[in-house]
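Annotated sample (chain length 95).
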Amino acid sequence: MMLDAGLISYLEDLSHLLLSEDEKARLTESLEKILNGMAKLGALELENIPERSHPFDNVNAFREDIVKHSFDRELILKNAPVKTDEMFIAPKTVE
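Output written by the structure step:
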């Protein structure tokens, strides 16, 4: 794809920008680099390469779920102003 002043002006209009000549030159240079990089990707030979959603073969990297003893509930609830046998009771904040 050729980048010319007409295309840059068209992109400027589409994006509702007013670019200086210096900005247009930098934009042209940046877009050429991007398009050249995409052309290199498009030229890659991808036959017989399996599709992958992730570059590693790890299926699951989570640890095993092991039940452990936590804090003593009575000790935690000891200083609560309002509580039940199992939890804090807080004032209602949403009606």
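Annotation: The helical segments are 5-14, 21-42, 73-77.
Annotation: Residues 83 and 89 are 5 Å apart (CA to CA).
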